[in-house]
Amino acid sequence: MTNVPKAVLYYYPKSVWSAVALLAIEEKGYGPDEIDRKVVDLSKGENYDPTFLRLNPKATVPVLVVPYENSLSEDTESRYKALIETKAIVEFLDKSRSAISRTHTTSDAPAPILSPATIAATTSCTAIIDLLHSEIANPNTLRYVNARDDESLKALAKETTTTLHQRQQALKGYLSDAEKGTIRVSDKVKKLWLEKLDAINLILAVLVDAEKPQAALGEQEKANRLAFFKTARQAWEVNLSDVLTQLSKEMIGPYALGDQFSIADLHLGGWLSRVARLAGATKEDDGSTVVSKLERYIGGGFLLARDFTTEQARRENANAQKLSKLGAFWDALRERPSWKRVYVNSTDDEDTATLNIHSFPPNSRFLFPASAASTPSVSPLPSRSTSPLPQFYPSPHSGSSCPSESESEEPTSPLLLDRAPSRNVTWRAHSRQRSWWSISGHRRQKRTWRLSRVTRRWLRRLVRSPFFPSQPITIVLTLILFSIFAISLTLLLIYVLNPDKEPLPWRAYCSHPSLAPPFNHPLQPNTPHFYPNFTDGRPYPPFPHAELDRLPPAGVFVGVFSVDSAFDRRNLVRTTWASHPRSREGANEGDDGVGTSRTLVRFVLGQPSREWERRVKLEMEMYNDIIILPIAENMNGGKSHTYFSWAAINAWVPPVYTSAAVPPPSFSYSNFTSTPPPLAPHDPFLAWQDINSGSPKPWVRPDYVVKVDDDSFVMLAELEARLRLELHSNPRQDNARQREHAGHGASAAPNTTHHPSAAASLSPGPAAGAFFSPNHRASIGSTTTAHNNNNNQDPLIYWGYLVTNRLHMFMAGELYALSWSLVDWASKDPTVKMLTRGAEDKQTASWMRIHPRASDVRWTSERCWIYDHPRSGTVYAHGFLFPSEVTRVRKAMDAELERAAQQAPLGAGATPTSVLGSGTPAAWGHSSVSTFHARYTPPLPDLSTKHSVEALVEGSDMSLLREGNPMTPDYAWSHREGRRARYEGNRVGGTVVVHYIKKNMWYLETALALLEGEEQSEAERYESSRRTQAQTQTQTNQVVPVPVVPGLGTGLAGQPHPYQRKPVVMDLHGRGH
Fold it and tell me: For residues 201, 205, 210 and 211, what is the CA-based torsion angle, rounded to 10 degrees?
């Protein structure tokens, strides 16, 4: 048997994951002559030698080279396979020496089976191993950032600088030999060497200055050191504490799966030995001491649960002191012969990993090592929903200098996977702070005892009272009366506290906002700056702007808040407004998707429950459009802040693909780029086209991050057009005018002539210079240098539907957008992190008020084109709205104001008081479709599907049908407006969001009303053909008979021809004339 080829283990004695392979060899009882062992000295860079790279192109250890089974005989040429992943190596060693294996073995030692025997145990085992090999648990990352202050940084530099210099020299030597031609290697190997050398240079840049005090450092060195300490705190105080807590939950005790030692314990033993040593523990310490040292080293009041008692302790003492599961595991592990043989002679005082780097957020300008040369096993994410998901890791494709050794086999979705944690330490710090009521337990007990005594005394007096009911009938009557009183009181409180007691004046919102609150009176001096501000009587600004399509599109990242079980609703979004051409391109001819070429739609979920976890994973793999946040699913418990914090790191959108008349503006974030991530099926066509070109353009930061509820229906082209105009507007003149106006405390009348500067910020041309001018770079690009050096020039825009009442003022939560600078600030500001609980839309408004430049934040409100579904019956509900109906509303409002002006005293004019009287006229909230606080009923029973959807359109003939009306549904349908007429020939200018869509049927109705329909109705086509024939007849002087459309050629009794009927015009009171 001496000539039989043997396996060879390439390892480094002080490597974390090499120790796992050595433990497996010892546990399985392999003989010393069965596996050859060869040391690869990582401290000298031997893992970068071209010979070793042929075995493992990732340059990591351990590596197990094993011969193929059919090449073991002496007369056969031996062939080998290299196992380069720790998990694969351990599984191979476990299976190769068992009762059913045919491996040549000379050892007679016991070979226990280490793999779990049940499905449940296998699931737990996989979850633990995956957690230990995730990036947030990487022990080599902890090794390289094991310094959170200047003193510990000095100690870290003394320990690692020599090794890093040796690796640096080795890499330089390999690169020099490759340049000279002494060794021949591929470009891929050269790239690996350069990336590793860059990583070493970056970490050395911090360590070589460790002896210098802060005052002696330059600005860049200070920034690097601060970023290093921030990363260290993140790794130790947040990531490691999360991992230890999760391990404690997953383990059974004393070993990972109970009393049986398994392969999970091999990985856990090697990992915990390294982490404990880094925290100051020694091999001689018992489990309680090791856990205590870990807790103290992590800090922040972190404590592991003491919820385990050994069987022996329970037998000896029923009240035995409980231990943590990790402490019990350490005690059990120290007694195993395998651990003693692997660790008894190891000093483990030198780092075992090569360097790899991930990028900090752009403002830190520092790269740090995040992965080890010791090979972690590659496997999917943990199958348990409670396991931490690495979705905050910066992708290797988005600014990383080189990929992690194991990332090439990991999923590469930039929305969830391959993300390194960048959560701020303070995110969870408050959860570890000791509550005030736990400071003095004795005082708390005494206070509680007094309260209970007083309560019992008064209850005793109440029961002994002669008026207290004692008979069954009196008890029942008393309970009934008490229930009636409680219900009445509740309803009264709901009515009193509900600010929405009457329908909103949506007609004024769409025509004369200065007549509707809060713009019907001068704003208070401390009121946020609204854009546009209508308190000076400014009319509704024209939209769409004539020069809209000359501006480059805005980058918009839309996050749709969803839950794990809402699969049907997500599919409705994917197949309707997220991908439909009329949503992305607009009405009429559209713009071929140019406007929304930089608009992405993604679904935002908290951590899914176990019941839905697998389905969500499959959905993610299929669509690439789901973001999993590291937070339990909630609505008002911090999900919005977590989403914006995620977006500040991971949100990217496509660049500008097509040239525009106006070049894109330059902001402080304009130069941040990333490799394009995997696309979703509903992503813009131009993005797919660019990806398939073979040389895709890098993606950039979005101009806006939008939060949307999944019961909202969004027209993407409409949303992007409004955000684009706001991005390119110049609010300086308008801002100065608002402040001047607030200082005078006066409000102009609705029909007052506007100051020239009032229109300047909303009109194009050289005089205004707001959007652009012939000298565009002078008007917009003049601050390019300032943008590059100072983000004070970045737009601060808070866009949405403004809700105002006596208690609050905020943008409604169905959809609001924050410009990039606001998102970046909110993700980092410590005060904002304390304002995450409560109604999320109100909390977001509170963030805007505490911004350092709160006076410059533009609260841009869109009240006309954001409303609730007609069937909802809420205060915000009315029929589906189109520009043609709004034009009719404006004309009716103008007529009403003109009548009010004529009736006013001579010279008084039409003021808000003369028009409104004591309140808002009810006619301003009238809808031809819905009624406030009333369930929607169709105008006629038994309408067909197309007729019932048409009846939901505001101002349509179908919505005016009533019993006894001579107009029939077919007649109303044939005389409806086509899409071209409803949009008045424009691409955009209509509904942006329809909210409160609680049923899927309502969702489909909204899709049919806003996305479907013909460009021209039958009546419009008939009139068009008549005009064409009339023109032909005029030219040829021939009489052409008028064609008759079958079924539509005769009108109603006493009415003109059906296609010659005048359209119905609604006045403010809903009367047609």
Answer: 100
Tracing tokens 């802060």 back to the chain, one arrives at 214
**Are 944 and 827 in a shared domain?**
no
Closest CA to 192 of 312, 56, 283: 56
Those residues whose C-beta lies under 8 Å from the C-beta of residue 890, and which sit 6 or more positions away, are: 510, 511, 540
3-state secondary structure of 674: strand
Q: Is pTM beyond 0.70 here?
A: no
Same domain, 481 and 626: no
Q: What is the rounded distance in angstroms from the CA atom of residue 107 to the CA atom of residue 326?
A: 33
- Rounded distance, CA 99 to CA 97, Å? 7
For 229-278, the pLDDT digits (tens) are: 888 899 999 999 999 999 999 998 899 898 889 999 999 999 999 999 99
Asked whether residue 602 falls in the same domain as residue 628, the answer is yes
Direct distance between the N- and C-terminal alpha carbons of the chain, in angstroms, rounded to an integer: 106
> Tokens 């005989």 map to which residue?
73
Distance CA 943, CA 966 (A): 16
CA atoms in the 13 A half-sphere facing the CB of 543: 25
Tens digits of residue pLDDT in 986-1037 = 999 999 999 999 999 999 999 999 999 999 999 999 999 998 888 888 877 6
Residue 1007 domain flag: yes
Boundary (domain end) residue, out of 80, 111, 142: 111
C-alpha angle 695/698/699, rounded to 5°?
135
Whether residues 721 and 848 fall in one domain = yes
Among 230-239, 628-637, 722-731, 776-785, the minimum mean pLDDT is found in 776-785
User: What's the token pair of residue 40?
Assistant: 């690869």
Q: How far apart are CA 740 and CA 720, in angstroms?
A: 31
> What three-state secondary structure class fits 798?
strand
Q: How confident is the model at residue 70 (pLDDT cuts 50, 70, 90)?
A: low
Residues 99 and 20 in one domain: yes
Whether 163 and 355 have beta carbons less than 8 Å apart is answered as: no
Q: How far is CA 720 from CA 226, 280, 552, 815, 989, in A?
A: 38, 55, 11, 13, 11
400 contacts: CB under 8 Å, gap ≥ 6: 357, 358, 359, 394
CA distances from 819 to 706, 726, 788 (A): 9, 10, 17
Question: Max Cα separation, the chain?
Answer: 119
Q: Tokens 């043989």 label which residue?
A: 341
Per-residue pLDDT at 395 exceeds 70: no
Residue 6: how many CB atoms within 10 A of its CB? 16
Write out the two tokens for 766: 């050289």
Q: Quick check: 508 and 540 in contact, CB under 8 A?
A: no
Tokens of 658: 């097509």
Q: Which domain holds residue 490?
A: 469-497
Structural domains counted in the chain? 4
Q: How many CB atoms lie within 10 A of CB 962?
A: 8
Nearest to 368, CA basis, from 398, 400, 395, 392? 400
* DSSP H or E segment with residue 786: helix 784-789
Answer yes or no: do 876 and 853 share one domain: no
- The CA distance from 941 to 946, in Å, is 13
